[in-house]
Amino acid sequence: NQGPLGFPIVDIAVTLTNGSYHAVDSSEQAFKQAARLAMQSGMEKCEPILLEPITAVEICAPSDFTSQMFQLITGRRGQILGYEPMSDWKGWDKISAYIPQAEMQDLIVELRSLTLGVGYFNWQ
């Protein structure tokens, strides 16, 4: 259940090969033990990484605040994917970004503070 980094392991498959059955020495417990040892050995060699949930965000704000929105995103360990003027709202920009879920708390508070209460965001 726990990997070498102390968190659950997901999306993994293991196949035991070259196994054989012997009427005296083979048992369910022996095969479970072999599988456990193979997993332990494989996990030590595979260099696991810890993944973090990421949220896709679109921030909309007046163009005068675009540089502050970039700072807001990068200050929350976000990655800016791009930005474009909003065609239906003249003088507004839409910024697309990825932000870690752990950094989403109070985003709206800081966003509204930086944009004098008019900026907003959508997320998936």
Structure description:
The protein is an alpha+beta fold. The chain has two domains: 1-50, no CATH class; 54-123, 2-Layer Sandwich (Alpha-Beta Plaits). The protein is 29% helix and 23% strand. The chain contains three helices and four strands; from the N terminus they run αβαββαβ. A four-stranded antiparallel sheet has the order 2-3-1-4, covered by helices on one side. A hairpin with a 6-residue loop joins strand 2 and strand 3 (92-100). The longest helix has 18 residues, at 28-45.
Counting DSSP H or I runs of 4 or more residues, the number of helices is 3
**CATH class category label of the largest domain:** Alpha Beta
Low-confidence stretches: none
* CATH-derived topology of the largest domain: Alpha-Beta Plaits
Name the average pLDDT. 89
Distance between the termini: 29 Å
SSE order: HEHEEHE
Structural class: alpha+beta
Portion in beta strands: 15-25%
Number of domains: 2
CATH second-level architecture of the largest domain: 2-Layer Sandwich
Gross morphology is rod-shaped
Number of strands: 4
**Largest sheet: number of strands, sense, barrel closure:** 4 strands, antiparallel
Strand order of the largest sheet: 2-3-1-4
Radius of gyration: 25 Å
Question: Percent helix among the residues?
Answer: 25-40%
